[in-house]
Amino acid sequence: MTRKQKRLSVILAGLAFLGAAAGLTFYALGQKASYFYMPADLTTATVQPGQRIRLGGLVEKGTIVRGQGATVAFSVTDKQKSVKVTYTGILPDLFREEQGVITEGAFGPDGVFVADSVLAKHDERYMPKEVADGLKAKGVWQESKSE
Amino acid sequence: MVETGHFALVLAFALSLVQMLVPLVGARAGNQRLMAVGGPVAVTGFALTALSFTALATAYAGSDFSVASVWENSHSLQPLIYKITGTWGNHEGSMLLWVLILTFFGALVAVFGNNLPATLKANVLAVQGMIGAAFFLFILATSNPFIRLNPAPIEGRDLNPILQDLGLAVHPPLLYLGYVGFSICFSFSVAALIEGRIDASWARWVRPWTLVAWMFLTGGIAMGSYWAYYELGWGGFWFWDPVENASFMPWLAGTALLHSAIVMEKRSALKIWTLLLAILTFSLSLLGTFLVRSGVLTSVHAFATDPARGVFILCILTLFIGGSLTLFALRASRLTAGGLFHPISREGALVLNNLFLTTATATVLVGTLYPLALEAITGGKISVGAPFFDLTFGPLMLPLLAIVPFGPLLAWKRGDVLAASQRLMAAFALALAAMLVTGLFIDGASVFAALGVGLAVWLVAGALTDLAVKSGVGSVAPTVMLRRFAGLPRSVFGTTLAHLGLGLTLLGIVGTLSFGTEKILTMRPGETVELSGHTLRFEGLYPQKGPNFTEDRGRFLLISEGNADGEITSAKRFYPVRQTVTTESGIRTLGLSQLYLSLGDAGNDGSVVVRLWWKPLVTLIWGGGLVMMAGAAMSLADRRLRVGAPSRRRKPAAAAVSASPT
């Protein structure tokens, strides 16, 4: 092969790789990326039961119920609407009433959100960014509250 | 002392301006004296930065709360070790550590670079100076660690409890040595572009630097992963968190660079590609710094969010990446293309390696940046996590891992796949056997698990095959074999170790993910739980007091075959200053596997939620990383690469070059 042919074959191989990777990436982004919602968003958006999403908001006061074993039920609210969530496992250290959380999972057929992970901020001076932005957009949380 | 540190930092900034301008002008004008300024200035700049860093560390160690950064991130009751490591457990201090390492590497080039062509050395130091100047300015303008408070507070606000751990002493310095180490490769590339020429000494110099940076980055990532594993109490070792990806991308690109640099050094091919990779690798390091330090991501690493900092780092990022790539576009055609080779050859295999690795880097980059871009453009918020990367990164890695053992067995220029396959028959049989045994005899093994174990064994056996073939196992007498084995270049052992480590890490990942078990339950004192053949008895919760925290320590007795076999404890810690609770996981290492225990909330009746994991082979994940580091160290020890060793041959060439411009 001449130098030109060789260069061409390397470029073609590279393009093939990039094409394959791009295909995989688009497919995965369509299938596997989970979108973030606040409870009030769910009235307008259609989320199928079983579709993985992230649900964020504040843990509503007085809704934490410890059930059998390590199962916990609580409500996530954005002060406009709240959603019932169940979770089995160890809650993060900073999980408590009125704290910002992000839960990830899917709605069951009964409309209860079954979370398989619950994230709270590592440091209590901060809110999860998505939750803070969402609450700010809804006008129920001011920056000054954080300090 | 604090003001001395502050002053030293300003001086170091001024010197970095000198370092970026004078040698560059000297190299253009061919003025020896101007070029020679670079070395001493780089060394002095490092000394001043070290002084500045020491001043800050002293302020931290002595709890000088009149310094704002100390007040915000330290407390008088902290143990001394965390007071000291707290120096870089915050934004300002960690940036100071960043430039300290940057100037350290610059000084190394200045001290050990005497056998470099004078213009190349001058240009390299000038580029190092530019990076330094940008970051010194960043620190002084937006993140000055030496700002005083008046009046001085009596007590500090404590270091984030998550960071009060030995991991902070190890992970950030190692990671930065890796990240910033690639700046040398970057500077060499930009210097080569400025000169419009790449010569033999260029390749000889870039490869060891890549090895050094790669070695530390590997260690930094592995240690970060282990730290997160035991500190966060979730039992996970990798979360595909954007911050992790930020360090993983330079690692992937750096791995590609490591391999293409071999081709360049041995065969003087792939020159332009290697140069581009060096630029990209450091660009990804800068991108990582931006992602982690700007606060665009929420994570434990984003110490504070200040938009000015983000914009500043973004400017640095644009300037360096844009500038170097523009220079590349303008000058790359001037560089002479390298030699030809057959597609089936060692070079060909390394090109394939590079294709896989760079594409994989690209998928990680997309997965990391896409959510940020989407949010900036449409305001939609998505999270891209493990499922995404399993689908994109996974399919790219599997074929790469499968071809790894072939690479070292192919000859340069023209290889023979058939011969290589024959030599790998034993390794292949071993891998197949491991796959069948896993699939047929271990309960609950999935196809993925069997494949994974097979692939890991294939990598380990393939790496050892290379060593066996090169020392002539089976073809020569044992005495000759031993002599050959002892006479093999260190870099051959380096390759073997690195590939072996990769196999071990894979084995650890597959073992943990496929055969790990977990239980979540509520336990009362005296109750026992059994998991994968290990029995634990909960003894109760015992309150304790530490220097700056209180804790409820849950004690569990491990019972093996009816006999007590030591205790595992896990605690819920409460740090009153920050009103923060952390979980201290309890880990017991049994062979290569670990029993991992994490305490949840306590009930009113003395019961407590317990999460228990059995993690088979999990230690191999990080053990493999250490083996990879050892491989890099071994390659570095190769005589051929030892800086200065080849100087006798290079001196005449260097003299000829330095003489020519005058």
UniProtKB/TrEMBL annotation, chain A:
Belongs to the CcmE/CycJ family. GO terms for cellular component: plasma membrane. This is Cytochrome c-type biogenesis protein CcmE. Its main location: membrane. PANTHER family: CYTOCHROME C-TYPE BIOGENESIS PROTEIN CCME HOMOLOG, MITOCHONDRIAL. Heme binds at H122, Y126. Heme chaperone required for the biogenesis of c-type cytochromes. Transiently binds heme delivered by CcmC and transfers the heme to apo-cytochromes in a process facilitated by CcmF and CcmH. SUPFAM superfamilies: Heme chaperone CcmE.
TrEMBL record, chain B:
Required for the biogenesis of c-type cytochromes. Possible subunit of a heme lyase. Residues 314-639 form the Cytochrome c-type biogenesis protein CcmF C-terminal domain. It is found in: Cell inner membrane. Belongs to the CcmF/CycK/Ccl1/NrfE/CcsA family. One of its GO terms (biological process) is cytochrome complex assembly. This is Heme lyase CcmF/NrfE family subunit. One of its GO terms (cellular component) is plasma membrane. The keyword Isomerase does not apply. One of its GO terms (molecular function) is heme transmembrane transporter activity. It is a multi-pass membrane protein. Residues 88-294 form the Cytochrome c assembly protein domain. The chain crosses the membrane at residues 6-25, 37-61, 95-113, 125-147, 174-194, 206-228, 248-265, 272-291, 311-330, 351-373, 393-412, 424-442, 448-469, 490-515, 617-637. It comes from the Bacteria. InterPro entries: CcmF_C, Cyt_c_assembly, Cyt_c_biogenesis, Cyt_c_biogenesis_CcmF. Pfam families: CcmF_C, Cytochrom_C_asm. The keyword Lyase applies. Keywords: Cell inner membrane, Cell membrane, Cytochrome c-type biogenesis, Lyase, Membrane, Transmembrane, Transmembrane helix. PANTHER family: CYTOCHROME C ASSEMBLY PROTEIN-RELATED (PTHR43653), CYTOCHROME C-TYPE BIOGENESIS PROTEIN CCMF (PTHR43653:SF1). NCBIfam families: nrfE, PRK10369.1.
